[in-house]
């Protein structure tokens, strides 16, 4: 089952399967500069704070990067969790610099106006 992940810092949303990590889903956004690091919970690059929703922890997170107190308040490593519902999260640490830099790419929607109407 897929769940919607909302990155509060940028307003972006993406679908994430229950069987994949939140980081793998985030990497599919295709944004340059999203650091994926070790993908095993040891480097701390993918630190996020879950503000809404439920998740399952799939691996041990290094206490060097996420303290027990931080984890108790929703801070986790995106490579170590799988969404069990829709999630809202804020990026923190090294990931914040990469995800929050510059404007979010716009999705342009073509609309028909007298200036762009084509006749065949």
Explain how this protein is built:
This protein has helices at 22-27, 68-72, 93-99; strands at 2-7, 13-17, 47-52, 55-57, 75-77, 81-83, 87-91. The chain has 120 residues and is α+β, with helices and mostly antiparallel strands. The protein has a single domain (2-99), classed as Roll (Ubiquitin-like (UB roll)). The longest helix is centred in the C-terminal third of the chain and has 7 residues, at 93-99. The model is unreliable at 103-120 (pLDDT under 50).
Q: What's the topology here?
A:
Layout: E1 2-7, E2 13-17, H1 22-27, E3 47-52, E4 55-57, H2 68-72, E5 75-77, E6 81-83, E7 87-91, H3 93-99
Parallel strand pairs: 1-7
Antiparallel strand pairs: 1-2, 3-5, 3-7, 4-6
What's the end-to-end separation, in Å? 44 Å
Number of helices: 3
Provide the number of structural domains. 1
Radius of gyration, in Å, reads: 17 Å
In CATH terms, what is the fold-level topology?
Ubiquitin-like (UB roll)
Residue share in helix:
10-25%
The CATH homologous superfamily corresponds to Beta-grasp domain
Label this structure with key terms.
15% helix, single chain, 120 residues, two-stranded antiparallel ribbon, globular, 7 strands, Ubiquitin-like (UB roll), alpha+beta
């Amino acid at each position: 089952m897929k769940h919607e992940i909302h990155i509060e810092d940028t307003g972006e949303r993406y679908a994430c399967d229950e069987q994949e990590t939140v980081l793998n889903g985030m990497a599919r956004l295709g944004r340059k500069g999203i650091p994926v690091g070790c993908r095993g919970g040891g480097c701390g690059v993918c630190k996020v704070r879950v503000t809404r929703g439920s998740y399952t922890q799939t691996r041990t997170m290094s206490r060097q990067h996420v303290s027990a107190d931080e984890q108790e308040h929703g801070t986790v490593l995106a490579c170590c969790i799988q969404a069990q519902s829709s999630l809202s999260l804020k990026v923190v640490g090294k990931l914040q610099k990469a995800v929050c830099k510059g404007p979010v790419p716009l999705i342009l929607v073509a609309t028909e106006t007298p200036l762009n109407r084509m006749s065949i």
